[in-house]
Amino acid sequence: MIVPFGHVLILAGLLFLMGIFCVVARRSLIMILLGVEIMLNAVAILLVGSSLLWQHLEGQAIVLFVFAIAGAEVSIGLALIVWAYRRTGSMDPNDYNFLR
Question: How far apart are CA 97 and CA 100, in angstroms?
């Protein structure tokens, strides 16, 4: 492995923290969805790095499924956001109490 595993851990941890910050601190639904995607990419980087470290390809195969699920999540999430925006005219998550 060319890059040390510690650097992969640091990169994945920083990306995951950035995603958490984006989910917690933002007031827009699109930015919250983007934060979730950043967290999924951090997990994918960690899975690829660990699979390269231990010479097992299962981690890379799981990453392909993670990307497929992330694509489905984005399409459904954006469809829900567009529907909610058309219904309320706002992107503020506090205005969406009708989803309960």
Answer: 6
Residue 99 lies in a domain: no
Q: What is the pLDDT of residues 74-94, one digit of tens each?
A: 999 999 889 888 888 888 877
- Per-residue burial over 13-45, b = 16 or more CB atoms within 10 Å of its CB, e = otherwise: eebbeebeebbeeeeebeebbbbbbbbbbbbbb
- The closest alpha carbon to 85, from 70, 95, 76, 75, belongs to 95
CA atoms of 59 and 52, how far apart (whole Å):
8
The pLDDT of residue 93 = 78
Question: Domain containing 28 — which CATH number?
Answer: 1.10.287.3510
